[in-house]
């Protein structure tokens, strides 16, 4: 198996170097994390079937959502995901090591901005999903308050942010539809500055107000 450095260059360097720091974010901003988790959960069907999270990280989303398989190039992250009960596989979204039509659900939660070739990853996602299967993408909206803050951190060369490419919901919709996905829907959460989110927020349909947007689409 090729390492992340060989496959995707710099994109995952900070997740390999600062795994514990990355995982600690979810405790430091627990209400925000649980708000994101709630929004993703609302996007899932009642019976999700077999699920894969691409860019599973340390398993913070996959484990509570019941997603069985997680893929990531960062080995230390995979070890933490494994400890959370996820069946882990080393790899990247642009080269999924799974047969066609293997999954009912495919998640990319806060991983889309780290893909080196998002179009290729979406083509792979379509291949790996069953007809009627769902792709669920979670992003920080580039035009939201948090997105603008993260763009500043990126310009400063801050770890994690420096390698990210942030998108708007409409840009992701266009990419999904260009790969044949249909029935694109949006949910949003994280209303207000991150440091002021003290309670778990409800998700709302649409986008443009919340910084975290969940985009759900169906594979025809």
Overall, the morphology is globular
Give me the CATH superfamily.
Vaccinia Virus protein VP39
The structural domain count equals: 1
The averaged pLDDT comes out at: 92
Number of strands: 8
Instruction: Compute the number of helices.
Output: 9
Major sheet description: 8 strands, mixed
State the helical fraction. 25-40%
Radius of gyration in whole Å, from Cα? 16 Å
Q: From N to C, what is the helix and strand string?
A: HHHHEHEHEEHEHHEEE
Structural class computed from helices and strand pairing: alpha/beta
CATH architectural name? 3-Layer(aba) Sandwich
Give start-end ranges of low-pLDDT stretches.
1-10
CATH class: Alpha Beta
Write the layout of secondary structure elements.
Elements: H1 4-8, H2 13-17, H3 19-28, H4 30-43, E1 51-54, H5 62-65, E2 69-72, H6 75-83, E3 87-90, E4 103-109, H7 118-128, E5 129-140, H8 145-155, H9 169-178, E6 182-189, E7 204-205, E8 212-218
Protein architecture, described:
The structure is a single chain. The protein has one domain (4-218): Rossmann fold (3-Layer(aba) Sandwich), CATH 3.40.50. It has nine helices and eight strands. The protein has helices spanning 4-8, 13-17, 19-28, 30-43, 62-65, 75-83, 118-128, 145-155, 169-178, and strands at residues 51-54, 69-72, 87-90, 103-109, 129-140, 182-189, 204-205, 212-218. The chain has an eight-stranded mixed β-sheet with strand order 3-2-1-4-5-8-6-7, with helices on both faces. Strand 1 (51-54), helix 5 and strand 2 form a beta-alpha-beta unit. The protein starts with a helix and ends with a strand.
């Amino acid at each position: 198996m090729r390492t992340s450095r060989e496959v995707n260059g710099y994109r995952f360097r900070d997740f390999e170097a600062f795994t514990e720091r990355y995982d600690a974010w979810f405790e430091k901003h627990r209400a925000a994390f649980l708000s994101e988790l709630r929004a993703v959960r609302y996007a899932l069907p009642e019976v999700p079937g077999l699920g894969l999270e691409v860019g599973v990280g340390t398993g913070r989303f996959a484990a509570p959502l019941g997603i069985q398989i997680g893929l990531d190039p960062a080995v230390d992250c995979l070890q933490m995901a494994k400890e959370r009960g996820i069946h882990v596989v080393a790899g990247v979204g642009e080269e999924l090591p799974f047969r066609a039509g293997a999954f009912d659900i495919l998640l990319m939660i806060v991983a889309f901005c780290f893909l080196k070739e998002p179009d290729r990853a979406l083509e792979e996602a379509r291949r790996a999903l069953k007809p009627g299967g769902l792709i669920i993408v979670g992003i920080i909206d580039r035009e939201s308050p948090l997105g603008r803050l993260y763009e500043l951190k990126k310009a400063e060369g801050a770890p994690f942010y420096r390698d990210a490419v942030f998108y708007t919901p409409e840009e992701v919709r266009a990419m999904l539809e260009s790969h044949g996905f249909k029935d694109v829907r949006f949910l949003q959460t994280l209303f207000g500055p991150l440091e002021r989110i003290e309670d778990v927020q409800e998700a709302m349909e649409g986008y443009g107000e919340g910084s975290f947007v969940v985009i759900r689409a169906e594979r025809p």
